[in-house]
Amino acid sequence: MDHYDGLNPGIFFDAAATAQLVFTTDLRIVAANKRYCALLGRQPRDLIGYQVFEAFPANPDDPEASAEAELTASIEAVVATGKEQQMPLRQHDVREADGRYATRYWRVRNSPIFADDARPDKVTHIIQTAEDVTRNTLGERADAARQRAAMRGAELSYFELDPVSGHLIQSPQLDALFGFDPEDTNDAVEPFLDRFHPDDRAEARAEIERVARTIGADLHLNSRIILPDGTMRWVIGRGESVRDPDTQTVRIVGIVLDVTAIRENEARLSEALAARDLMIAEVNHRVKNSLQMVTSILNLEGSATVDPAARSSLRAATARVNAVAAIHASLYEDADVSSVWIDRYLKRLTTHLRLSLSSDARGLQITYDAESIRLDTDRAVSLSLAVNELVTNSFKHAYGPEDDGTVTITLRRADENMILLEVADDGTGPGADRASSDAKSSGLGQRLIAGMAASLGGTIEEDQTNGWRTRILFPE
């Protein structure tokens, strides 16, 4: 360097009040002033000649470390524009003499140096001015964490815990919640942990240890505490871990809430719901028994009736009542008293229809294929009655006395919001033309089918190709 008035300009660089580092455009360090070396705990020989990130490697335990990429982008901008670049606040931890990394936050300004006399517009070096703002940044974040904890409610049980030493700073409300006088605990966390329920204590300690391992981790405690008089209270703890701006140690700050009343209300509500479900189950059981009694009476009437038409009508009425009774039997047996797995019910209904229609004696088969679908009680009753009528109609109209055949019941989801019920037969007997057959009968079965489809909110499609096929499409 040239000398001016007998002074070396390097003296001014070394004596600057700000930390400054000079490096080439490929990030190789050529100079560092005293302030910079003191700030980073390095000697010039530890820096000069090294690449910036050889001298200051990223913290391998910080997966979000991105200072190298940001510095490279900033230098490229300085070289391209010849103008100073101010980098945003950035964390870049510094490796200490013992090999551990200390958390550091920096504000950095990169300025161009034009040292090529032949190319006065060419940026040859960068002078970097660095400001360590770790204490202010961590202080702001700790204050923000405290404010977030305080904002969760006024007059709450606030605490600040050093998880390593066990030192606790707490509000009087926390002492009162755990049944302590202010002088009882000596600002230690152990007396508080000792009042956790024995079954919850290990989990509480593990949660504190988990949160202490990562800055910014959220604390979630849901535990019981036992007071000196034996009273049990439910509490929840909410907070987060921060780094102390003075000591760099981890702190956990947060609040504790007494939620005993909420838990007791939840328990009472659960008991009330259980009692309600028990009552509904009992009602379903009684309805099932009453309907079975009705079917018994109808069977007796049918046996005593000599008129074939009356006997047929009574048999049909018995089948319809049995279809409804089976639904209530399913509700009584299931934990959910308001709905049924309709696929399981169809299996039971198919067995009942085989017996009531004497399908084996006639050489006819009933098969079913149903997806696992749960329906509420009212719609399950409507669907069961529709299936009962459709299968009965197939047996009545599609086959002659000597015919063999198969009636197939299918239930599946047609798309995300619709369910398709299909009952099909392969009958081609003299009564297979369902329209002409119904014209000769009362048409009650068809009216029931239409009514049940309407109660399901569905539509009916019929097709007579190689038998008879009825589809009911309804919303889930």
UniProtKB/TrEMBL annotation:
Query: Known EC number(s)?
Result: 2.7.13.3
**Which keywords has UniProt assigned to this entry?**
ATP-binding, Kinase, Nucleotide-binding, Phosphoprotein, Transferase, Virulence
Q: Which SMART domains match?
A: PAC, PAS
Q: Which InterPro entries match?
A: HATPase_C_sf, HATPase_dom, His_kinase_dom, PAC, PAS, PAS-assoc_C, PAS-like_dom_sf, PAS_4
Residue limits of the PAC domain? 219-271
User: Catalysed reaction per UniProt?
Assistant: ATP + protein L-histidine = ADP + protein N-phospho-L-histidine
- Tell me where in this chain the Histidine kinase domain is found: 282-476
SUPFAM superfamilies assigned: ATPase domain of HSP90 chaperone/DNA topoisomerase II/histidine kinase, PYP-like sensor domain (PAS domain)
Q: Which domain of life is it from?
A: Bacteria
Which CDD domains did the record assign? PAS
Residue stretches making up the PAS domain: 143-215
Enzyme class name = transferase
Q: Kindly list any coiled-coil regions of this protein.
A: none
Which NCBIfam families is this protein grouped with? sensory_box (TIGR00229)
Protein name in the entry: histidine kinase
